[in-house]
């Protein structure tokens, strides 16, 4: 069995303890360390080499956004899941744009937290469709970006359909059902969108679609 090594970075010791207790009972997950702020998190990640980092946003000394950027700029970056209260945090979109693999609300039910970590560890970004739509609404502007329009113009018709569906916050399974495709085919299209649009996650695709004025 492959065991996913986890590092928890949060300035609230109760949150760290709760996550450690919850995740410690999973046979395929191992919490290898904790950190109380972004600086300590970056240092601990370099020392422990975790597979996935659970990263709070608002922390002293170095916030989660800057810590995520530092982690993802390293030679062998871990996958990063942002922990957020969502309604209060202004940095979530920026963290995802910086390359984070997804985010979790702090009140997410434990089974969903475990499922999200497993998905991210396997290379499948975890973005709740409902929250993705809300995130995009927060950053969408009324003016069209010529650069975004030009990037989308390079896509095939089918790739554009998939990009629009991602922009609406649909999951791979929902896109497959709507476009009468298999889920592996949708995943292949999304991978090509990453390359063609020069992005690293689904929120960046959605932001490009919105910047182009298509939604």
For the largest sheet, list the strands in their spatial order: 2-1-3-4-5
**CATH architecture name of the largest domain:** 3-Layer(aba) Sandwich
Number of domains: 2
* CATH top-level class of the largest domain: Alpha Beta
- Binned, the helix content reads 40-55%
Poorly predicted runs are none
CATH topology of the largest domain: Rossmann fold
Proportion of residues in extended strands: 5-15%
Number of discrete helical segments: 11
| Total number of beta strands | 5
Q: Estimate the global geometry from the Cα principal axes.
A: globular
Series of secondary-structure elements, N-terminal to C-terminal: EHEHEHEHEHHHHHHH
Can you describe this structure?
With 215 residues, the chain is α/β, with parallel strands linked by helices. The protein has two domains: 123 residues, Response regulator (Rossmann fold, 3-Layer(aba) Sandwich); 70 residues, Orthogonal Bundle (Arc Repressor Mutant, subunit A). It has a five-stranded parallel β-sheet, with helices on both faces. Helix 1 links the parallel strand 1 and strand 2. Helix 6 crosses helix 11, helix 8 packs across helix 11 and helix 9 crosses helix 10. The radius of gyration is 17 Å and the shape is globular. The termini are far apart. The mean pLDDT is 84.
Strand and helix map with partners:
Layout: E1 4-9, H1 13-24, E2 29-35, H2 38-48, E3 52-56, H3 64-72, E4 79-84, H4 92-97, E5 102-105, H5 110-121, H6 129-139, H7 146-153, H8 157-167, H9 172-179, H10 183-197, H11 202-211
Parallel strand pairs: 1-2, 1-3, 3-4, 4-5
